[in-house]
Design goal:
The chain is mostly helical. It has one domain.
Length: 48
């Protein structure tokens, strides 16, 4: 069973994953559609 602390760690790790994706990208700005696409890719990768 996960605790509140576990969920907080998971949330921070997910945010860090997003930060790495955006900071390593070639673009300075992203459209809403591009962000949604990146989030979808993260979600699908976590399921594998």
């Amino acid at each position: 069973m996960l605790t509140d602390k576990d969920y907080a760690v998971i949330e921070k790790a997910t945010l860090y994953d997003l930060r790495l994706i955006f900071s390593s990208g070639e673009k300075d700005t992203y459209t809403r559609e591009e962000i949604v696409e990146l989030l979808d890719k993260i979600a699908m990768a976590k399921d594998d």
